[in-house]
Amino acid sequence: MQFFLDTASLQDITWASQAGLIDGVTTNPSLLAKQAGDLDPRDVLKEICSVVDGPVSAEVVAVDVDGMVQEGTELAKIADHIVVKIPMIETGMVAVRRLTSAGIRTNVTLCFSSVQCLVAAKAGATYVSPFIGRLDDVGQEGMDVIRETRQIFDNYQMETHILTASIRHPRHVAEAAMVGAHVATMPPDVLRKLLRHPLTERGLEQFLSDWAALGQRVKAGA
Ligand code: G3P
Q: 121, 112, 187, 183: which is closest to 144 by C-alpha?
């Protein structure tokens, strides 16, 4: 399974990338607005692309076909590994088809059902992004969308990748991996939580204190 970081924070992206933990990045207008401040959001995207070699999703804000295609084409000029994020709306599907024909990769976002994912795949999307956390928030089982979509794509040998989005905790990552999502995109705090377990911390403390009790000096870096 591939891990993407769902953030525009250069600090977090640099850490995760240096640790070799991420294969790409996803952003959205809210995340970019938070990071950009006085900067041009395109400059933030350019910097992200200089740190990460894998796909970097950047979202259009137009909702008409020509506007989405124009914005998507401009975003794709920032770097070869930009993937254009398009909302799951009628005009969006035409934009996906046109961008795909122009050789630009797309990520259809704001998907909340397996049939939306099927439609996006038929339009030619490279990725579909079902938002599982937001479904859980309204009392639906978000993971069901990932499971159903995987089954549908397998039935018809569809090449679109399932990018599990709106991940809130490590169990979401484990379950998405078990049902066969291609990618999990997660906020930096969830990625950090994947590394931790209270028994790991407790075990390490115990080892170090037993060693110290022996009267041994623990050599730094040993
Ligand atoms: O970037 C899309 C998605 O991952 C957003 O997640 O936490 O705002 O529901 P969230």
A: 112
> For atom 5 of ligand 1, which residue has the closest CA?
166
When divided into structural domains, the chain yields a total of 1
The reply to whether ligand 1 has any atom less than 6 angstroms from the CB of 108 is no
What is 31-68 written as a DSSP string? HHHHHHTTS-HHHHHHHHHHH--S-EEEE----SHHHH
Structural tokens at position 81: 């590994």
Residue 103 within any structural domain of the chain: yes
- Model pTM above 0.90: yes
How close is the Cα of 102 to the center of ligand 1, in Å?
Answer: 28
What confidence tens digit (pLDDT) does each residue in 186-207 have?
999 999 999 999 999 999 999 9
- Of 57, 131, 146, the residue with max ligand 1 atoms within 8 A of its CB, to mutate for a pocket test, comes to 131
Query: H helices of the chain, where?
Result: 10-18, 29-36, 41-51, 65-76, 90-101, 114-123, 132-137, 142-155, 170-178, 188-195, 198-213
Cβ 54 under 6 angstroms from ligand 1: no
* 41: containing domain: 2-197
In a domain, 222, yes or no: no
Catalytic residue among 34, 46, 77, 85: 85
Active site residue 77: no
CATH code of 22's domain: 3.20.20.70
The single-letter code of the amino acid at 212 is: A
Is 166's C-beta closer than 6 angstroms to any atom of ligand 1? yes
